């Protein structure tokens, strides 16, 4: 129970810490510009690295000083031992010669060498820090003074060569101990340098944690800088797709807020223009459809001889009027479909759509056109569901199916297939018409562009159908491609294959 309470307290403290960091980051973003934030991030990233560099440089400098001091000390000890050996040998040699030859000049040389030895010992005692070395040097000094006193005494003449050599034996023993101690001091110096080197290496390795720390700091600042930019990109994509309903308001650096304010002003103006366009098209379409219905009804009555028989010329004029009325009606319907593209409210209300049922409904609307040309419709009926806007998708499929009917030969086939994968949902609408030239596969999506009409077509299009399809697919993050159906197993002759692709994020098959 106690462990559970401690775990809860730790979790609460962690959540509080994360909340504090989030509030700090938001406050930081709202109060600094991107330039300052970048400079601040560079400073926080560089500071640990600079501190680690200064620490390493300081330690290396200390090691260099210690190594220099140790080398100098070793050189001094080596030189001292060499000088002591040489001077003691000279002192002993001149003392022995003086005892044997009893020559005053040899005595003078002995005294000079003895004083030189004393000076060397005194100089070494002042420079050495090792206590054992100082004690040995002091013992060597005392022994040297004892021999000096002995040689300068009145009884020195009675001493033999063997006695002199025995007197110097103690001096040699102390000098030997001094050499051994010097070796110990040198070894100790080398060991100290080795230990210091290892310690510095360990300290430098221990501070390698600064690297992930700096990477973490860099990552935090990258997130702080790129997060507002990603949000801004999302807002721009919404504008690109024609969504002018959602207000653009972003928190972040001053530059991001300024761009967001500019985008918001642009969104409001675009939204206002879009509403004006939509209202204008709806109004014009409504005003045109009312008299058009009366004209169509009247022309049909005249054409059917309901008000009396017509001669051949009158019949021809009525046929022209009838065809023109039908074309005008198609143009009005296309304008209404195009108004869906302009209306950003049509982007809302995404729902789960039964693709098979939607295709069936679209085909039912075109049932009379299909029947009038004796076309056979082949459609995949396997269950497939898609999250999309049913109104927009219906307009897309209706326009493509209308083109397929228009360019299909009498008693031809139209095949509709669809399949899904992890990446996308693909819908193919294949006809047996004349197909389309490769050079025109992009141009047909231009507004009001119209290709060569088929021979059996009685109604001329408006040139807006595929433009509407492409714009609506752009809003749904989809794409459209027109290819030849010659190599498809579902086609028995040349024709056009219109392929619609929607991303897999919108697909949910059952």
Automatic annotation (TrEMBL):
What does it catalyze?
ATP + protein L-histidine = ADP + protein N-phospho-L-histidine
Q: Quote any Pfam family the record assigns.
A: HisKA
Enzyme category, top tier: transferase
The record's listing under SUPFAM superfamilies reads: ATPase domain of HSP90 chaperone/DNA topoisomerase II/histidine kinase, HAMP domain-like, Homodimeric domain of signal transducing histidine kinase
This entry's Enzyme Commission designation comes to 2.7.13.3
Q: Which domain of life is it from?
A: Bacteria
* Principal subcellular localisation of the protein: membrane
Q: Which InterPro entries match?
A: HAMP_dom (IPR003660), HATPase_C_sf (IPR036890), HATPase_dom (IPR003594), His_kinase_dom (IPR005467), HisK_dim/P_dom (IPR003661), HisK_dim/P_sf (IPR036097), Sensor_HK_Regulatory (IPR050736), Sig_transdc_His_kin-like_C (IPR004358)
Name recorded for this polypeptide: histidine kinase
Q: Does the keyword Ubl conjugation apply?
A: no
One GO molecular function term of this record is: kinase activity
